């Protein structure tokens, strides 16, 4: 791999900036100053530093972000702040995209990656992984409501939802719902199908990923174990 491509892939520099940094003596490879940005390196072996700081190479980047209300799940938006705006500049350069969207007023777990094949597989109808949401609603859910929602309801556009799991709280106005699909505003539309209305909605897990320890508005890199679990993830029926 070319040294400048390596640096670009980490989000630290653009290709032109990498060339200038090399000519300025700011880059070392294996402890030796390297002034040629087109040099071939082995990312699995060579240790590269920029201004004395070791550069960690990742073929793909995987982030977990706890989305706050009012932020849109998009790569760019002309009016509202996006999930990418919550990241440092160097990560915004990596071509990350949200794997599955939450609407502007839904909070919680968003997976961001630049691994297109994996992202598309996780979102395909054949490979949807379980997604768990915490909700509150306007009216108490009856046992009949829960049975209908779990069996699949017909939305206003005629789509029949796949089976879900509902865990209603004692008051009936709060609980958790688990889906294996993600249609547009699906949970809100499901509640409307039983003459109810979502008040608050938060995604708390996506497959093996959970929000544990990640405050609202914060992000973190996925662990190697979490990445491996996503790569193994297969959809199922509920």
What gyration radius follows from the Cα positions, in whole Å?
A: 22 Å
CATH architecture heading of the largest domain: 2-Layer Sandwich
What is the element string, with H for helices and E for strands?
HHEEEEEHEEHEHEEHEEEH
Report on the biggest sheet. 9 strands, mixed
CATH topology of the largest domain: Alpha-Beta Plaits
CATH class annotation of the largest domain: Alpha Beta
Name of the CATH superfamily of the largest domain: Pseudouridine synthase I, catalytic domain, N-terminal subdomain
Question: How would you describe what is shown here?
Answer:
The protein folds into three domains: 3-54, Structural Genomics Hypothetical 15.5 Kd Protein In mrcA-pckA Intergenic Region, Chain A (Roll), CATH 3.10.290; 62-126 and 208-232, Pseudouridine synthase I, catalytic domain, N-terminal subdomain (Alpha-Beta Plaits); 131-206, Alpha-Beta Plaits (2-Layer Sandwich), CATH 3.30.70.1560. The protein has 238 residues and is of the alpha+beta class. The radius of gyration is 22 Å and the shape is elongated. The protein is 23% helix and 24% strand. Strands 5, 6, 7, 8, 9, 10, 11, 12 and 13 form a nine-stranded mixed sheet that branches. The chain has a four-stranded antiparallel sheet with strand order 2-1-3-4, with no helix packed on it. The longest helix has 9 residues, at 15-23.
How does the SSE layout of this entry go?
Layout: H1 3-9, H2 15-23, E1 27-29, E2 32-33, E3 48-50, E4 53-54, E5 62-67, H3 89-92, E6 97-98, E7 107-113, H4 116-123, E8 131-137, H5 143-151, E9 165-168, E10 174-179, H6 186-193, E11 198-206, E12 209-210, E13 219-221, H7 224-232
Parallel strand pairs: 7-11
Antiparallel strand pairs: 1-2, 1-3, 3-4, 5-7, 5-13, 6-7, 8-10, 8-11, 9-10, 11-12
């Amino acid at each position: 791999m070319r040294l400048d491509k390596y640096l670009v892939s980490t989000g630290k520099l653009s290709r032109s900036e990498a060339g200038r940094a090399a000519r300025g003596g700011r880059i070392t490879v294996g402890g030796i100053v390297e002034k040629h940005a087109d040099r071939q390196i082995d990312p699995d072996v060579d240790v590269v530093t920029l201004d004395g700081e070791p550069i960690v190479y990742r073929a793909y980047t995987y982030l977990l972000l706890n989305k706050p209300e009012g932020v849109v799940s998009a790569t760019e938006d002309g009016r509202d702040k996006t999930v990418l705006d919550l990241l440092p500049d160097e990560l915004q350069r990596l071509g990350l995209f949200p794997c599955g969207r939450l609407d502007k007023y839904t909070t919680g777990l968003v997976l961001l990656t630049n691994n297109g094949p994996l992202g598309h597989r996780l979102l395909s109808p054949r490979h949807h992984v379980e997604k768990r949401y915490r909700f509150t609603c306007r009216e108490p859910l009856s046992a009949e409501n829960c049975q209908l929602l779990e069996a699949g309801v017909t939305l206003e556009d005629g789509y029949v939802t796949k089976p879900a799991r509902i865990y209603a709280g004692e008051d009936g106005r709060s609980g958790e719902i688990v889906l294996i699909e993600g249609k547009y505003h699906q949970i809100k539309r499901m509640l409307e199908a039983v003459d109810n209305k979502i008040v608050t909605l938060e995604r708390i897990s996506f497959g093996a990923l959970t929000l544990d320890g990640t405050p609202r508005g914060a992000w973190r890199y996925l662990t190697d174990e979490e990445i491996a679990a996503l790569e193994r993830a297969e959809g199922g029926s509920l």
